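Researcher: Last one for today. Full complex below.
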Amino acid sequence: MNKLPVTSYLTGIYLFFYIPIIFLIIYSFNNAQYSLIWHGFSMRWYHELFADGDLWVAVLHSLLLGISAATVAMCVGGLTAITMYRYDFFGRRLLSGLIFILILSPDIVMGISLLILFSLLRVPLGFWSLLLAHITFCIPFVVVTVYSRIVSFDEYIFEAAKDLGAKDSVILSRVILPLLWPALLSGWLLSFTLSIDDVMISYFVAGPDFEILPLKIYSMVRLGVKPEINALCTVTFGLTLILVAISQLVLRKKP
Amino acid sequence: MMRFITVALGLLIITPLFAAENIVNVYTWSGVIPDSAIRQFETETGIKVNFSTYDSNEVMYAKLKADKNPSYDVIEPSSYYIDRMRRQDMLAKFNKAELPNFKNINTSFLNQSYDPKSEYSIPFIWGITGIFVNKEYRDPASFQRWADLWNKKYADQIMLLDDSREVFSMALRTLGYSVNDENPEHIKQAYLKLKELLPNIKIFNSAPISILVDEDANVGMVWNGDVFRAKKENPHVDFIFPKDGFVVWVDNFAIPKNAPHAANAHKFLNFMMRADVAKAVAIDNSFPTANLAAQKLLPADVRDSKTVYPSPDVMRRGEFQTDISDDALSLYEKYWERLKMGG
Amino acid sequence: MKAHDNSLKYFSLGTIWLWLIVFALLPFALVTLASFASHDDTHLLTTPATLLNYFQLNNAIYLKIFKQSFYIASTCTVICLLLGYPFAYTIARMQSRYKSLLMLLIIIPFWTSSLIRTYSMITMLKPKGIINSILLWTGIIDKPLPLLFSDTSVMIGLVYNLLPFMVLPLLTNIERLDNRLIDAARDLGANRFTTFRRIILPLTMPGILSGSILVFLPAMTIFYIPDLLGGSKSILLGNLIQNQFLIAQNWPLGSAISVVFTLILAVMLLVYWHSMGNKERDLL
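Model: Here's the assembly. Have a good evening.
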C-alpha cells in the first residue's frame, strides 16, 4: 500500500487535534496581559498561577466534584448494566430507551430542566446541585460502557456459578466484578472526564459557594483569558502526559 | 470499588465544612475588582470571599431570580437595574452606621432618581460609552459621531458591545431621541436604523480589551475605561466622545434582600469605600471612580486623562441611563434577537 | 432464570428508576409544564396557562434560527464523517504496536478544558494570528484573511470539538469488523470500491449513525462556540434557549423551544431505531 499519503493524512488529523494545545502552551509564556500576539518570553504567569489561591480552590472543587460524581455514577450505572443483562423485568426496554435518550438529550435542555427542578424544590445551588446534575448525566455513559462489555462475556459463566449454588450477591462479587472492573474503570474515567469539562449543564446549576474550574474558565474566556489559565492548562496537560506514560509503562510490563 | 466508595464518602463529608466558614459571596461585573483587593480584604478581616463575575446586568438579574435560596451578598448592578430591582423589592436597605466610609462617595452621584435617598445603592464606578478608533488604520477625525459608523465603507469592520441597552441607545441618539425613550414607534425606528448597520458589524463583545489591543477590530463602540487599559499594550487606540451624545452609566454596589451574610457584606462594602482601597481598585480597572476621596489620591496620568475624566464641557453631551418599562424592555429584546439573526 | 435471591435486582432497579424519575423525567415534565406558563416582570413562571409560547415559535426568526442551526449541524456532521471515517478506518485496521498509543492520543486532548482549547484557536485565527502571519510571510495573501468571527471559524471550532465523537464510535465499530468477510469479497473478485460499498459500508453503518448523532446533536446546541468564535453574531438553537433563560428572562418561551426541540429529536431517534431493525441490543 501507498504509505506516504496515509501517514501524512493521519499526521494531519493529529496535528489538528494538538496544534491548539501547542499554542496554548506557547502562549502561557507570552509576556502580555491582554494581547494574544507574541510579545516575548516570560515566566510571570506561572508565578501568578502559583500565587492564585482561588484558582486552585476551583481546581480542587472540580476534582472533588468529578471524583464524587464519577464514583456514584459508576456504582449506580454499573449495577444498572448488570441488572439489565442478568434479569428480565417489566419496563426493561423502557429503561434502556430512557438511558439512550439521556445520552443524546441536549445538555442545555438538561441544564435548564434541572435548574427548574432545583428552583422549585428550593435546593440551594452549589455543590449538591452540581453533584446531582453531574451524576445524572454520567450514569447513562457508565451503563453503556459496562453493558457493551458485559454482553461480550460467555453467558455460561454465570449459569455455571449459579448451578454450583452461588447466590446472586456471591456471583456479583466473585464472578462479575472481577471480570468487569476494566469496564467499570473506563466508565469511571469517562464520567470523570465529562464532569471536569462540563460547561453547559454546570452553567445553569452552579452557585456562588462552590466555584468550579470550567465555569471560572468560561467567565474568563468571555472576558479575555488571563494567560495564567494557559499556564494552568499547560501544567495539567503535562501531568496528564506523565500519568499516561506511567500507565503505558506499567501496562506494557504486565503480560 | 470499596476504596472508591470510602474515598467518595470521605470527600462528601468534608465538603460542607468548606461552606460553613466565615464568608461573603460577591458577584460583580467582570474586571472591576482586582484579585489583589479581594486578597487584602481576606487578610485584613479573615472573611473568605467567594468572588464571581458577570458580563451583563441581565445575567446577574436572572441568576438572582432563578435561585430561590438567597445566595449572593454583594452585587453590582448598573443604575437602571438598581431601579428595577428596588421596585421589585429585591434589594436590602443598608445599615449606614456600619458604613462609615460612605462619606467618601462623590455626592453628585447620590440621591439620584433610581434611588432617591441612596438607601439601596452605593455608586462604585461610572463610565461613558463612546467610540474607539485605532489611529494607525483610521482617522479619528472621521468618527466624531455615532452616525459615522453607518458609512458603507466599513463593511464587516465594526465592533459593538454585546448589550442591547447600549446598542439601542446609540441608535436612539443618532435619531435624536433620548436613550431612555419608551415610545414603541421610536424603538422601532432605532431597530430599523440598526438593521442598516448590520453589514458593517463584525463582532458583538462586551469585554473587548484584547480585541482592541490585537487590532481584531479597529473601530467600534466601547466603554472608556477599557480603552485606557488597552492603550497600555497598544498606544494607537483612541477614545472619542460622540458629538451626537452618549450614555453615562453608573454601576452601584447593593445587597440583595435576605442576603445570607449581610453583616459581612457591610464589612466588604465599607472596605471597598476606603480611600486607599478604592484608589487601588480605580487604578486597576481604569474606570472613573465614584469615590471622591480616592479620586484625589490617583496618580496624575489617570486623574488627568481626558479619556477617564472628561471635562465638564464634554460631560454636558452625556445622558444618564434610567430604567424603562417592561413593555419597552421586551420590545428591545425582541428586536435584539432579530438583529442578531440578521434582521 | 430462577429467582431465589432478588434483593439485588430490586435494589438496583429501585435506585436507577428513582434516580431517573427524579432527575430526568420529573425535570422534563417541569419544562413541559413551564412551556405552558406565562411570565411577568416579578415572576419567572406564573399562571394562567397558555399556548401562546408555542404560537410565538411560529415566526420567521425562530424558523430561521432553527434552519440555520440544522444547516450548520449537518455540515459539521458531514465534515466530521469525511475527516473521521478514513482516520478511524486506518487506525482500527492497523497492525502496529503503536495502535493503542494512537487511540489514546485521540482521547488525551479531552483532558484539557475544551473551552481553553477553543479559545486557543482564537489566537491562531486572528487577523494578526499565526495562520495569517504565515500566509502573509509566504506571500500567498497580501491582506489578512478575516478568519475569526465568521461562519468559517465557528465551523472549524465545531469540527475541532466534535470530531472525536465521530471517530470513537467508528473505531469500536470498525475494529469488530470480521476480516473474513472482506477477504471473501476480494476472493470472489470484488474490487476495492465494490468491497467498500457492498461489505464495509453496510457493516459499519451502525458506527456511522451513532457517530453522526453524537456530532449532530451537540452541534445544534453548543452555545459557547458561536459566542467565542463567531463574535456572538450567529445565534444557534443553544444560544436562543440560553438567551430566553438568562437574558430575556422568558422561561416559558425557552421551555417551549426546548420541548419542541426535544420532540424533533425524539422523532429523529425513532427513525434511527427503525432503521436499525428495532433490535434491542443495538440500543446500547
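The radius of gyration of chain C is 24 Å. Chain C touches chain A through 88 residues (CB under 8 Å).
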